Amino acid sequence: xxxxxxxxxxxxxxxxxxxxxxxxxxxxxxxxxxxxxxxxxxxxxxxxxxxxxxxxxxxxxxxxxxxxxxxxxxxxxxxxxxxxxxxxxxxxxxxxxxxxxxxxxxxxxxxxxxxxxxxxxxxxxxxxxxxxxxxxxxxxxxxxxxxxxxxxxxxxxxxxxxxxxxxxxxxxxxxxxxxxxxxxxxxxxxxxxxxxxxxxxxxxxxxxxxxxxxxxxxxxxxxxxxxxxxxxxxxxxxxxxxxxxxxxxxxxxxxxxxxxxxxxxxxxxxxxxxxxxxxxxxxxxxxxxxxxxxxxxxxxxxxxxxxxxxxxxxxxxxxxxxxxxxxxx
Length: 329
Known about the structure:
329 residues, Na+/H+ antiporter like fold
């Protein structure tokens, strides 16, 4: 019975699976898709406001100064991922069409997610302050590093973003600004949020469900199930799963090897082992010809919801372990 209890998915995992099925059969289109995009944006703004309200000034400075953690995350995102892609080129060329092989390399060059990485860190009771700094910094670095990595990995010239300040502004307005406002208002909101306790988790998990539905809806509308033959899709899924597994195992192994705490380990795992669909699609439109954008974003469309579902299950386990440890202490 204990074995069955361990493998039985919890309600949040079932909600994630239901969200993917719903997006596959009833994806958001037209006005609904625009509404969903706006709703997700405001939920994330609220999430960052709450995180800013909950964190003490000491925790924020600790997050900014946690240079070893940030170095490991950045190294995983912009060194390990591209290295795996480069070393895998002979295999990719044999099992995938040339355009999809290049698309896998593009996936490896992308920055990490921001919103979902921080939300998952919150669910896992990780170091949220460090996650905010690390995930936001990864996206900012990606504006400069992703085009360079694409040029190296795909052996072709790429154009830089026509206005990279737009991406910086969006990150500042959507993420850092509400975080800072929440922290400034902490004397008035902090105690109330601490009393609410676990109820705040609804916002964390709800934001993940919204991102999963939005990501899968966009993939389905873009022709996810029509873009490639079923056999090629299966190979692409297997490659994405293998890439995710290798990098996740690396993050956990390196975290423990370097002596990071369990909270920092969760932060490294969820900030370092993810790739951003939100950043990937606009970057693809800038870096590639219009006819090549569809195949180029297919791997990240598969990888993004996969990483969210897998990470959500792992984050729940981390959170349960942390709650049990706190209750025992």
